[in-house]
């Protein structure tokens, strides 16, 4: 029997990069999936690959997490299709990375906050009744940009630290209901990070120097497997934690 047989996991931004890495790890352990994103073709490609390789059911939905009604639609379709929700993973985020703080506009800050903090809030609020019923968990994604104050990432860091604050309060409030909330701060070599490396080589070089093991985490084997553990009964005692996965891992309060 697989670790998450029959579970239902929502992953925002699940069609590519870290999101698809997590989707692969969850499918490998038997979890059915709801993948959201902005590109249906990419989501359907992910669906085809995951269903054919791992025999799970995947529901792709185009949705913008900053749109409250879109989030309600995702949750409604998930429950209509699968009847439950075991795990929510808030992974998707948009921001103006590489832009100095003094060059940010209000619109830049709004972009990060709405796609990050508001999206996480909307999904958490709408999923809570079903997570309470299943004794499920939330895994929110933050970043070392906020933990360590990475230059050129002020709006992104602000949104991610907002998500961490939201998560800590939710962990406290929802613990008595059996719902766990944890945060993962990843850094993995994805298509987006490769593009960032090309655009900001000096920042990239500094980032890799600051990682203890001198490598980036793997989306499936490092980040995905850690999230599978956090979603499983083996992690029933873990909530309110921030876990860094950036070529070395550790727990941060």
Structure explained in plain terms:
51% of the residues lie in helices and 16% in strands. A hairpin with a 3-residue loop joins strand 7 (242-245) and strand 8 (249-252). The protein has one domain: NAD(P)-binding Rossmann-like Domain (Rossmann fold, 3-Layer(aba) Sandwich). Strands 3-2-1-4-5-6-7-8 form an eight-stranded mixed beta sheet, sandwiched between helices. By secondary structure, it is an alpha/beta fold. Mean pLDDT is 92; it is low at 248-253. Helix 7 packs across helix 8 (201-209).
Spell out the blueprint of helices and strands.
Blueprint: E1 8-12, H1 17-28, E2 32-37, H2 40-54, E3 58-62, H3 68-82, E4 87-90, H4 106-134, E5 137-141, H5 144-148, H6 154-174, E6 180-186, H7 191-199, H8 201-209, H9 219-231, E7 242-245, E8 249-252
Parallel strand pairs: 1-2, 1-4, 2-3, 4-5, 5-6, 6-7
Antiparallel strand pairs: 7-8
